[in-house]
Amino acid sequence: MDDNVLLVEKKEGYRVLTLNRPEKLNSFNVDLHEALRAALNEVASDEDCRAVLITGSGRGFCAGQDLGDRDFSDSDEDPDLGATIDAWYNPLVRQIKALDMPVVCAVNGVAAGAGANIALACDVVLAAKSARFIQAFVKIGLVPDSGGTWSLTHLLGEARAKGLALTAMPLMAEQAEQWGMIWKAIDDDDLMAEAQKMMEGFARAPTVSLGLAKKAIHRAATNTFSEQLDLERDLQREAGSSLDYREGVSAFLEKRKPEFTGKRNS
Ligand code: LHQ
User: Quick check: pTM over 0.90?
Assistant: First the structure.
């Protein structure tokens, strides 16, 4: 395995994961999948890690699957793309969704195919104004994957989801922000500084409550209003037993800044 395909930086309270195959626009091969999975597993088991930032090196964020690995011109057999998705892409986006802490994506350049949809699976998407999102799949005879059909439909509604998926039209970051597909488009030169600032905030945040809020918002996609009210009650009960709730209320009453630890009360 090539150890360099993912750069992992341990910062105070958070991790920065940089996809690092810039000559291939950080497209995914098995080495990159393995490295990212291992890094996310490590994050999940590290008590001191309270947020994750995913970005790319060079001029692109990620161009999806490395198509160099997919040349089957010499083979008569049909490739089983479902197996690739089961082995790598679906576990990856599930892992991002399931992490009980914020996952921020800083889209530093083009995000195409699965690269675009992995970004959309993250909790907060920041993008350089020069970045574009491309549902490139139809250009090679495929369908959007990595949750793209779900994310686009939920974020944008059917008309825009279909427009993007069926035409592969590039969507610039500022338009993506106006449409509500991402949180914020940022001047290229300021992207990483803004992302870093957000991460420093998350590293000092009441992590339990952030993780629970993320969970509740995910469930809202399928719950009825009434089911969601019950879920909020249960999650509030859980949040209410965290040390950070005690600290938040004490700090408010004592008119001082809270010092959240991100730890559970157990
Ligand atoms: C690449 C790639 C790439 C290899 C740029 N692979 N080298 C799931 C399950 C199983 C199988 C299939 O896939 C999936 C999910 C998917 O993600 S399917 C979608 C795969 N991705 C694409 O179809 C996107 C392909 N790339 C592009 O259309 C363009 O490169 C974009 C629009 C992303 C960027 O265009 P440009 O800015 O003009 O850059 P470029 O095309 O010149 O690329 C720069 C280099 O990166 C170039 O290499 P070279 O040696 O000529 O400089 C490209 O060949 C390489 N590259 N994407 N996916």
Answer: yes
